């Protein structure tokens, strides 16, 4: 049996890599828009999915509900999202981008794509294979 070394353990490496990449990208939107990582994830999800509940964001972005709720409150205070009772279940809040939130995402999305392109360029010719393997791991299929 191989010796266990945390720094060589794939789940640990993925977690460390994700945190590093997230922090690196956060420097782009934190300085320019005053957003934290949680706020960025909520905005990006609402940009992709449209109006949804905190529960939906929690499931999709893999963040604690309390973290999503706090981020949503900060975004609402900043005028970037609105909160309304859900028509089907009044106990749930429906979050949606405001016009100001849409404008921020219109400016931020190209920056995100540029960051992603620069990140993938570090992998050179291996980038497509890396993306394919990452998609396979995320899908949970062999």
Describe the structure.
The chain is mainly alpha-helical. The chain has a single domain (about 10-140), classed as Winged helix-like DNA-binding domain superfamily/Winged helix DNA-binding domain (Arc Repressor Mutant, subunit A), CATH 1.10.10.10. The chain has helices at about 10-35, 35-50, 55-60, 65-75, 100-120, 125-140; strands at about 50-55, 80-85, 95. A hairpin with a 7-residue loop joins strand 2 and strand 3. The relative contact order is 0.11.
Which structural category fits the helices and strands? mainly alpha
DSSP strand content: 5-15%
Number of strands: 3
Just name the CATH architecture.
Orthogonal Bundle
Strand order of the largest sheet: 1-3-2
Largest sheet: 3 strands, antiparallel
C-alpha-based Rg, rounded: 18 Å
Indicate the percent of residues in helices.
55-70%
Uncertain regions spanning at least 5 consecutive residues: none
Annotation field: number of helices: 6
Q: Which superfamily, in CATH terms, is the homologous superfamily?
A: Winged helix-like DNA-binding domain superfamily/Winged helix DNA-binding domain
The domain count comes to 1
On the 0-100 scale, what is the average pLDDT?
92
Provide the CATH top-level class.
Mainly Alpha
Fill in the CATH topology: Arc Repressor Mutant, subunit A
Q: Could you spell the SSE succession in H and E letters? A: HHEHHEEHH
Spatial shape = globular
């Amino acid at each position: 049996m191989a010796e266990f070394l945390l720094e060589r353990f794939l789940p640990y490496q993925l977690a460390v890599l994700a945190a590093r990449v997230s922090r690196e990208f956060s420097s782009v939107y934190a300085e320019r828009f005053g957003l934290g990582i949680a706020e960025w994830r909520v905005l990006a999800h609402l940009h992709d999915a449209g109006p949804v509940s905190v529960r939906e964001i929690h499931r999709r972005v893999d963040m604690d509900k309390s973290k999503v709720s706090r981020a949503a409150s900060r975004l609402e205070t900043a005028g970037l999202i609105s909160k309304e009772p859900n028509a089907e279940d009044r106990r749930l809040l429906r979050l949606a981008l405001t016009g100001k939130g849409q404008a921020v995402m219109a400016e931020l999305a190209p920056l995100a794509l540029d960051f992603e392109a620069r990140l993938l360029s570090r992998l050179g010719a291996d980038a497509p294979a890396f993306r394919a393997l990452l998609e396979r791991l995320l899908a949970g299929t062999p």
